[in-house]
């Protein structure tokens, strides 16, 4: 009996030895990841191991995820049903999903919208449906993992162009004779916080007949047409919404809710309904999430949260200059402010020191960003107040000295 157990254990060890050695390698290279568990608290604090932390690592840029009026409505919605427990093409579609889709179409100025389970699935769903072996996808080097995975799933040839380098993009597109060409970029880049050069990119896509896809998970509801004050996202900010063939976004960042969506022409949405496996073969987004996102959308359109957020961003930039903190990407209106540290170990150490002082600023490392490009990714919210921002930068400037 004992020898049988030993032999089972040995076989198990042999089978999984590659896992152990890979985990050891990750630890040695300061790339090991682990889950931290938090308790959510009021406003922008989290409880972590009995400590109250100010959260500077959330994508809840407008602070809507804890908005009291929304939470009150949520209680009423959930009383009826938790989930439709069915996919969209069986019995999962509802008037609530349809209403949200309609309202997102007018928000983004598209003919049609489809709700996906989340932004990750929306990227997989669009790229795998539109791309195939005969397609060439041109993808910005800093595009998010869900875009990279969507490209892989599509079986297309993928040409990566250097970040925001429109002349190389044009060269690559020009020498590609394939009929089906797709350009995909983000609106505001998730780890760098900068805007994609959408005006130039949309010109290239028009001139060379490329389908233009923009994943605007981080710009949606945050920026928009400044004259119209519509907060319809990065394409609206650059006044090129109509040049974008497919808009992809998440409901779990600016809107503070959960889910993803794709806005496009009627015909492309019909195509996705028929071809997009991540749309077809999964349960519909629960009605209560759709309804609450719809209410959050109305709330976000007022613009009050955005004005608070912009004020916080300006204040943060001002303090960065005053404290002379170096290697910070300061982009007007962008709630994502990376402080580039370089070494993975150093970034982790600074993040731990901040944690001890009561601030949660996650260190971002490879493979999310390139090796030796580790950074503290500060994300600001309308919920933060000036006092909290001041305290963070005051302490950070001392740690960095
Ligand atoms: C650019 C980008 N696209 C898509 C996603 C995925 O969105 P979701 O969290 O809704 O799955 C993220 C998430 O961080 C993102 O940064």
What would you say about this model in short?
The protein is an alpha/beta fold and 401 residues long. The chain has helices at 2-28, 68-78, 88-92, 95-108, 119-130, 145-154, 166-174, 198-207, 234-237, 266-275, 277-280, 287-301, 304-322, 344-356, 386-400, and strands at 39-40, 45-48, 51-55, 112-116, 135-140, 157-161, 180-186, 211-215, 246-250, 260-264, 336-342, 359-360, 363-364, 374-379. It folds into 2 domains: 30-59 and 303-400, Aspartate Aminotransferase, domain 1 (Alpha-Beta Complex), CATH 3.90.1150.10; 84-301, Type I PLP-dependent aspartate aminotransferase-like (Major domain) (Aspartate Aminotransferase, domain 2), CATH 3.40.640.10.
Protein traits:
alpha/beta, 401 residues, Aspartate Aminotransferase, domain 1, seven-stranded mixed sheet, binds pyridoxal-5'-phosphate, 2 domains, Aspartate Aminotransferase, domain 2
Task: Report what the structure shows.
This protein folds into two domains: 30-59 and 303-400, Aspartate Aminotransferase, domain 1 (Alpha-Beta Complex), CATH 3.90.1150.10; 84-301, Aspartate Aminotransferase, domain 2 (3-Layer(aba) Sandwich), CATH 3.40.640. α9 (234-237) links the parallel β8 (211-215) and β9. It starts with a helix and ends with a helix. The protein has helices at residues 2-28, 68-78, 88-92, 95-108, 119-130, 145-154, 166-174, 198-207, 234-237, 266-275, 277-280, 287-301, 304-322, 344-356, 386-400, and strands at residues 39-40, 45-48, 51-55, 112-116, 135-140, 157-161, 180-186, 211-215, 246-250, 260-264, 336-342, 359-360, 363-364, 374-379. 44% of the residues lie in helices and 16% in strands. A seven-stranded mixed beta sheet has the order 4-10-9-8-7-5-6, sandwiched between helices. Strands 1-2-3-12 form a four-stranded mixed beta sheet. It has a three-stranded antiparallel beta sheet with strand order 11-14-13. The structure holds pyridoxal-5'-phosphate. Pyridoxal-5'-phosphate (PLP) binds next to α5.
């Amino acid at each position: 009996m004992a020898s049988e157990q030993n032999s089972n254990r040995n076989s198990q060890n042999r089978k999984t030895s590659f896992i152990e050695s890979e985990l050891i390698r990750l630890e040695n290279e300061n790339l090991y990841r682990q889950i931290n568990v938090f308790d959510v608290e009021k406003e922008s604090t989290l409880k972590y191991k009995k400590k109250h932390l100010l959260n500077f690592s959330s994508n809840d840029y407008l602070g809507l995820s804890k908005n009291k009026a929304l939470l009150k409505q949520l209680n009423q919605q959930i009383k009826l049903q938790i989930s439709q427990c069915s996919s969209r093409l069986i019995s999962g579609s509802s008037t609530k999903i349809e209403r949200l889709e309609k309202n997102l179409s007018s928000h983004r100025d598209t003919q049609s919208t489809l709700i996906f389970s989340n932004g990750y699935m929306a990227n997989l769903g669009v790229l795998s449906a539109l791309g195939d072996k005969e397609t060439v996808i041109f993808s910005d080097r800093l595009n998010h993992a869900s875009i990279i995975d969507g490209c892989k799933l599509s079986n297309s040839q993928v040409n990566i162009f250097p970040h925001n380098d429109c002349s190389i993009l044009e060269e690559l597109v020009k020498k590609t004779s394939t009929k089906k060409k797709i350009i995909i970029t983000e609106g505001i880049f998730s780890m760098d916080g900068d805007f994609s050069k959408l005006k130039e990119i949309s010109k290239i896509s028009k001139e060379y007949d490329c389908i233009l896809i923009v994943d605007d998970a981080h710009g949606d509801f945050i920026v928009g047409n400044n004259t119209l004050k519509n907060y319809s996202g990065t394409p609206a900010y650059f006044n090129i919404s109509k040049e974008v063939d497919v808009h992809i976004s998440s409901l779990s960042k600016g809107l503070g809710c959960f889910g993803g969506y794709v806005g496009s022409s009627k015909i492309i949405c019909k195509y996705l309904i028929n071809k997009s496996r991540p749309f077809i073969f999964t349960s519909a987004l629960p009605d209560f999430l759709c309804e609450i996102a719809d209410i959050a959308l109305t709330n976000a359109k007022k613009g009050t949260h955005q004005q608070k957020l912009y004020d916080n961003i300006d204040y943060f930039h001002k303090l960065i200059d005053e404290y002379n903190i170096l290697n910070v990407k300061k982009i007007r209106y962008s709630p994502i402010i990376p402080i580039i540290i370089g070494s993975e170990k150093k970034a982790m150490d600074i993040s731990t020191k901040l944690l001890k002082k009561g601030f949660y600023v996650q260190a971002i490392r490879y493979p999310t960003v390139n090796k030796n490009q580790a950074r503290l990714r500060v994300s600001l919210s309308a919920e933060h107040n000036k006092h909290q921002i001041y305290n963070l930068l005051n302490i950070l400037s001392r740690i960095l000295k």
